[in-house]
Every structure is written in C-alpha cells, then in structure tokens.
Amino acid sequence: MTMLLIYGLAVLALNILTGGSGQFSLGQSAFYAVGAYTTAVLMEQFNVNYALTLPIAGVVCFAFGFLFGQPALRLSGVYLALATFALATAMPQLLKLNFLEHWTGGVQGLVVTKPDAPFGLPMSQDMWLYYFTLVVTLAIYIFSVNLLRSRSGRAFMAIRDNEIAASAMGVDVALYKTLAFGVSAAITGIAGSLGAIAVQFVAPDSYTITLAISLFLGMVVGGVGWLPGSIVGAAFIIFVPNIAEGISKGLSGAVFGVLLFLVIYLVPHGARQVAILGQQLAGKLRKS
Amino acid sequence: MELFTNQVLAGIATGAIYACMALAVVMIYQAIDHLNFAQGEMAMFSTFISWQLMQWGVPYWAAFVITLAFSFVAGIAIERILFKPLAKAPILTNVAGFIALFAIINSSAGLIWDFTIKQYPTPFGSAPFLGSQLISTHQAGMVGVTVLLLLGLYFFFQYTRIGLAMRAAASVPESARLVGINTSWMIALGWGMATAIGSIAGMLIAPVVFLEPNMMGGVLIYGFAAAVLGGLTSPFGAVVGGFLVGIFENLAGTYIPGVGNELKLPIALALIISVLVVKPAGLFGRHIVKRV
Q: Which of A37, A248, B25, B131 has the most CB atoms around its CB within 10 Å?
C-alpha cells in the first residue's frame, strides 16, 4: 500500500509535466533516484532526521530538474524523449562512479533504517510509514491541484495547447517550461525519498529506465492530465505485472502486454474516460 | 595514428549495425510519425524465424527471402490488427501500445526459443577484410548491404509512384486523401517495409552480437540515437548518423580516460543531445514550421 502511494506520487509528477505542460519525459527514474539517494545519504552518513530529508530531496531535485530543463527547452517531442531517456540511462552509471562511492556505496548501494513511530504512538513501523506517506501524498496532491488551477498552471496548459499562441499572450514560455520540469522533478524526488525509506535500500540498479517506462505506462493508464488517475495508474503498474506472473510464469511479459493492449483499446484515454462515462451515466440517471 | 585509424574502422563496422537499425526506425517514423519502441523486438523475432528455417535445413539465402516476406506480411498484419484501431487515440497511448508489443514479442520469443545464446551464420565469412584485423568480411558486407538498401530506398521514394504516394500520405495525410491516395494502406505498407528492413538489420547483426531474445536492447537505443542525430525525416541522415555514433562511441571509449565500456552509452547520448541543442531537427532533418 505504501508503495502504491509512492508510485502514485511519481506518476502524479509526470502527469504535471506531460499532462500539464505537454513535455514528454522518459527520465523520471533519474529524478526518483536523486531523491532516493539524497535521503539515503543524509540519513545514513549525516544522521539527519528522515522527515527533514524529504524537503531537502525536493529542493535538490527541483534544482536538478530546473537545470535539466534549460537545455531541454530547445527540444520537443521525440527529441525531448531521447534527451530524458539519455538522462535515465546515464543515472545508474553515474551513481556507480568511483569518486562518489564514499557516500553512495557504489554498486552495493546503501541500507536505510526504517524510522520508528514518534511520540510513543502504539504503531508498527510499517503502519507509521504508511500514514506518514499518506499525509505527504495528500499534501502534495492538494498542492498539485491548486498549482494547475493557479496562474502558473494555466500557463502550463497554454504552452501545452499552443506554444506560439501562449508566448503571444505574454506567457514566459522558457520560464514556465523549466518550472514545470523543476516541480515535476521535485515531486518525483520526494516520492523517491519516501521509496528509499519504505524499501530500506537504495542501489543504482533499482533506478533504471524500466522504472521510467512503468511510470509512463502508469500515467497513460490513469489518464494523461487527470491527477486522480495517477493512483489508478500506480495500481496498474504495481499489481498487473504480479497478476501476469500469476497467470503464466514464462509468458508473464506477454500477458502483461496483452492486458495493457486491452486497457488501451477499451479506454484509450485511460481511467479518466471511465470517470467521465460514469459521470455522464449518473447525470442521465438523475434526469430520468 | 594507427590506433586512431583502427578505432575509426571499428567504429564504422559497429556503425553499420546502428545505421541499419536507424534506417528501419526512420522508415516507420516516416510512415506513422511515431517512434516504434518494439522495432528491435520485431527484428529479433524475424531473425529467430530465419534461424529456425536454417535449422530445418533451408539454405541461407532462401531463408533470408522467406524471412523478408514473412516480416513484410507480419508488419502489415500488426498494423492492421493492433494499431489501426488506435490511429485516433492520443500519441501517448500509441507509445504505450508499442511498449506492450515489446513485452509480448520479447517474452514469447523467450518462451519459443528460450534465452540461451545461439550462433548465427554469416553469408560473407569472417576472414579479415583487405588485411585489416578490425574489419571482417562480414562487417564489410554489412556496410555494403546498408548502402545498397539506402540506394534502393532512395530510388523507391524518389522515382516510383507508390513511393511518392507514401511520402505524401506521411507528410500531409488530408491533402493526400483528397488526391485519391489510400493513406491507411500506405501506413500499413510503411509498417511492412520497416519490419522487413528491421529483419535485414537483425539478420546482419545476429552473427556479431549472437542470437537471443534480448539481443536488440542495446542496438535499438543506438539506432534511435542515430536516427535522431541524423534527423528523423531523412533516411540518408539516419545512415550517416549511424556511422557517426559508431565512430564516436569507439573513439570516446579509447581516448577519454575513465570512460570504458560502462559509460560509452551515456557519453554517446550526451553528444547527441549537444548536437540537438544546436540543431534541433537533427543534422539532415527538415525543419517543420508549425502553423498557429
């Protein structure tokens, strides 16, 4: 359940970037890794409190995403996809570099200790972590909804729908595009640090391109640009591979693919379509 | 100096692989306007088919032709059955479809032929080519086939009616339909051709990287990178991009200290991104001006 919320957050972040500002990213796993490592290194090497590491991870990732957004400004569509893809493939290798090994533990990674519930609350560590994640996720969700409704959010959408028209309307395209990258990276980073605490372990090879691809699938299944869908998408990427494995061990990939195909045939716009259909149905029922 | 020339030659040899793959990527991009993530897996599957045929005693060239025909038909079938219903869905949904196709093909190939590495024969032999130790006759043959393929495609697209129709259908589908081109079938044809080219790439690469279900992973990434570097709108650019990526990757691995094999890929990708920042449409790509 905790992982569901964490992946939900990461999908949400991608949703803000792609659904909000229309930029496509396959590099989310890199931001996730940066967040996870920030937390792990701070907690284990510098004994910082776990709750404090979250905002720090957020800030670090925001800066990282904002900087990465600068060169990405000139690219769009598939070219941007390739650039972010490069980031995602480079990240595990960079984390393995020798001169960082002192902090990151190299290929071995780092073990993270699970925090106890504070104030002597009668809860197990897992339960406390779940509630902690829940609160963080809710806070970020409310923040994102408000963000997309704010002036900045409208600027994102204007850029998504038509960049030239948006700049003619006085939207600072460069600023808002990089800002979208930064915000998305920050949220992904927080998800990453929660993930590090929940899994109790960080290693370069947990953050490969596969992670970025599954986050992307989660976004598509949940519905691009529809924030509540993020949780649905996260559920899909966590549970469906397990179901596929359950149906057939050797063919789990094929079963997963077929299920994915079924989903995108039935609802090409993701869970959002289901929600809209449901609303229309409810409206009809009320009338009749 | 000799080290340098040798590395460049080795780069050209690996570059030929990437060029082949990039050509297939560009073909399908021309036809459907998307990058096909499952391209490598489709090529891998075709290669397995030809291997299976050879195991049954079919001679190399016969197997080659049968596989080409099979891939062509399979490409069209995949488009008709799986992707035509998605033609109106959002782009991102299509990309998810490619990923699904990737998973399906990869795991069924694993089930049918299992994951052990297999030897694959070469029609060109593997003796050193013109006395150079780094390029074998197979690799030289690969370069030759790539160039031939490129010339063939060039003439097909420039001088035949159907090639012209395909280009029209890809660049302005509405106008193409108005002048009576069946754009939907042109897309299917593009899939068929791209799959066939991919299968050629697969059969040429297999003797070098050996045959197994995951053989295409790395190659496809380089193929994409090469295609993007050369410009996704230009088959010629894709081939040049393929050779450039191959050469650069080898030189970076040799001359930049601390790069080694692990960091080769990120470095190559970083180079490509820096090229793209300067020339956003790739080296030979056309700039597409968007109307408001």
A: B25
User: Which tokens hold the place of A269?
Assistant: 């716009």
Please give the Cα distance from B113 to B157 (Å, whole number).
37
CA A91 to chain B, closest CA, distance in angstroms equals 9
Put simply, whether B97 touches A (Cβ < 8 Å) is yes
What is this structure's pTM? 0.75
Count the residues in chain A. 288
- Residues A116/A118/A120/A124 CA torsion (nearest 10 deg): -40
pLDDT in tens, B236-284: 888 888 888 888 877 777 776 655 556 666 776 777 777 777 776 667 7
Rounded Cα distance between A186 and A182, Å, is 6
How far is it, in rounded angstroms, from Cα B10 to Cα A79?
28
Quick one: A2 exposed, middle or buried, by C-beta within 10 A (0-12, 13-18, 19+)? buried
- Residue A254 with chain B: CB contacts under 8 Å: 103-104, 107-108, 111
Partners of B89 on chain A (C-beta within 8 Å) are 264, 268-269
Residues of B in contact with A258 (CB under 8 A): 100, 104
Identity at A165, one-letter amino acid code: A
Q: Per-residue pLDDT tens for B8-46?
A: 777 787 788 788 888 877 877 776 667 777 777 888 888
Give the nearest partner residue to A253 out of B85, B106, B232, using CB atoms: B106
Element (H, E) at B134: strand B132-136
Whether B232 and chain A come into contact, CB under 8 Å, resolves to yes
ipTM value, please give it: 0.72
Helix H segments across A75-124? 77-95, 101-104
